[in-house]
Design goal:
The longest helix has 18 residues. The chain has a single domain, classed as Alpha-Beta Plaits (2-Layer Sandwich), CATH 3.30.70. A hairpin with a 6-residue loop joins strand 2 and strand 3. The chain contains three helices and four strands; from the N terminus they run E-H-E-E-H-E-H. The chain is elongated, with a radius of gyration of 16 Å. The relative contact order is 0.28. The chain is α+β, with helices and mostly antiparallel strands and about 110 residues long. Strands 2-3-1-4 form a four-stranded antiparallel sheet, covered by helices on one side.
Amino acid sequence: MSESRMIRVTVRGAFDGLSDAQRAELIADGGDDLMAVEYTEAGHLSYDLAARPFFTFRFGEEVTDEREIPDVTARAELKAETWMTERGYGFKKLTSQTVDMSEVPLGKRGRRL
């Protein structure tokens, strides 16, 4: 039986070519709480457009085979692009970072039994 792995993908980019109306809309919405970071399959978007033009999407997905990890990354990038495009927001410099949480070393507290 395969063990499930939690994969976290962080997709970052910069807003680009926003109209004044789009910028005002995004600032009014405020994005998700920057202190309440979540990795979800649908994605969690955070930004502080009043401070800087960057955004971060966080996606989480479980897989049973490590060969699925590149597909998880590709899906996360596509979801971020689709979200921005569907709303008419321009973006650039999209990058992603993928972490297999089963590979993250535990700190001292995590090793206690």
